[in-house]
């Protein structure tokens, strides 16, 4: 925990909301349990997002908001003096103090995370999390069009984790030691869930977490993620590469994505959906999810790929 940084963020956020530079959306939240998989969902209903001020505006659509970010939203112009990242407030948050870690130089959102992206994200989690106060954060990266990303300039996002929320990744990693998946060892995958996902627990001893460890873990998960696109490209040549990266101090998870939106209900998912944090804009979708929480798991499969638990990378690759 780094009080200097957390206080700077809180002050900038309060000022941004007051001046109207940050457009906070009010929402209702409900915690649900999927009776078939046991997964927890935190479903957030934010109908005012349908009227997002800048949506649909042609000029704004063509503008890169991260090329010259608004000073009112800029928390750090050069985070950790690395010459590589700006730390910005999200202009349209649903959760207070939602942050964006944006590359100073333009890089495409389809590029993979590099070792510095990973270590800077991890360092940010260390600075923002507070175990005594049970404050925890999620870093996520929406890579490629099917992942739910809407901006092409490379950016990771940092979102405060809901209190007392246990994601399937937490259950999967509970009591497990860190390992780097290889030819003989597969990443963790919950066989009860319908969709493919690859999870690795991170070391409890944070001193041992460095660029190499994070990069090797990431690459091992990315290899498995990309096999889906190689395997499916003959039958589905239109398929674009896309995946989500989710990182907490406890685990790293990658999810291959086939589509950003579900056709079963009018809803799109970014990485947060694959932690069970489901953002809903339409009232009828909210009601349908409350009635039948398992619909979320079906939509996760529709927007992802089938679960491969119990199969080795070689088997599902060829
Ligand atoms: P992307 O990676 O491109 O897309 P996204 O987060 O999925 O957001 P999207 O724009 O599709 O918003 P949505 O209505 O689904 O990220 C781009 C980010 O840049 C966005 O977060 C956007 O708000 C932000 N941005 C755009 N212009 C900006 C500017 N000028 N300055 C600073 N930031 C700018 O979702 C609405 C919001 O809810 C998003 O912030 C989204 O991240 C967040 N959200 C999604 N799921 C959530 C969940 N389950 N819980 C809480 N929040 C959630």
UniProtKB/TrEMBL annotation:
One of its GO terms (molecular function) is ATP:ADP adenylyltransferase activity. One of its GO terms (biological process) is nucleotide metabolic process. Residues 51-62 have a biased composition (Basic and acidic residues). Residues 48-68 are annotated as: Disordered. Substrate binds at residues 52, 90-91, 142, 148-151, 157, 270-272, 277, 281. InterPro entries: Ap4A_phos1/2, Ap4A_phos1/2-like, Ap4A_phos1/2_N, ATP_adenylylTrfase_C, HIT-like_sf. Pfam families: Ap4A_phos_N, ATP_transf. Gene3D superfamilies: 3.30.428.70. This is LANO_0G00628g1_1. The lineage of its organism: Eukaryota, Fungi, Dikarya, Ascomycota, Saccharomycotina.
């Amino acid at each position: 925990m780094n009080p200097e940084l957390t206080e700077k963020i809180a002050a900038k956020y309060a000022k941004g909301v007051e001046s109207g530079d940050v457009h906070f959306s009010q929402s209702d939240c409900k915690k649900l349990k999927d009776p078939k998989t046991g997964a927890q969902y935190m479903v957030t209903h934010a109908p005012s997002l349908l009227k997002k001020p800048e949506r649909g505006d042609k000029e704004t659509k063509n503008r890169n908001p991260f090329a010259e970010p608004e000073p009112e939203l800029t928390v750090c112009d050069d985070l950790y003096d690395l010459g590589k990242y700006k730390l910005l407030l999200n202009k349209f948050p649903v959760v207070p103090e939602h942050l964006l870690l944006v590359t100073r130089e333009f890089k495409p959102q389809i590029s993979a995370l590099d070792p510095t992206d990973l270590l800077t994200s991890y360092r940010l989690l260390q600075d923002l999390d507070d175990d005594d106060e049970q404050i925890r954060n999620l870093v996520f990266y929406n890579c490629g069009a099917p992942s739910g990303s809407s901006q092409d300039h490379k950016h990771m996002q940092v979102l405060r984790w809901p209190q007392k929320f246990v994601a399937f990744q937490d259950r999967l990693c509970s009591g497990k030691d860190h390992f780097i998946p290889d030819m003989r060892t597969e990443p963790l995958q919950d066989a009860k869930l319908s969709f493919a996902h690859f999870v690795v627990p991170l070391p409890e001893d944070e001193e041992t977490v460095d660029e190499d460890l994070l990069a090797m873990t990431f690459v091992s998960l990315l290899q498995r993620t990309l096999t889906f696109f190689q395997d499916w490209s003959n039958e589905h040549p239109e398929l674009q590469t896309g995946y989500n990266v989710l990182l907490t101090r406890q685990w790293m998870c990658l999810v291959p994505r086939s589509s950003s939106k579900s056709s079963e209900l009018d809803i799109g998912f970014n990485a947060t959906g694959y932690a069970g944090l489901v953002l809903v804009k339409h009232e009828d979708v909210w009601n349908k999810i409350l009635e039948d929480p398992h619909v979320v798991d079906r939509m996760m499969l529709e927007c992802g790929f089938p679960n491969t638990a119990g199969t080795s990378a070689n088997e599902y690759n060829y």
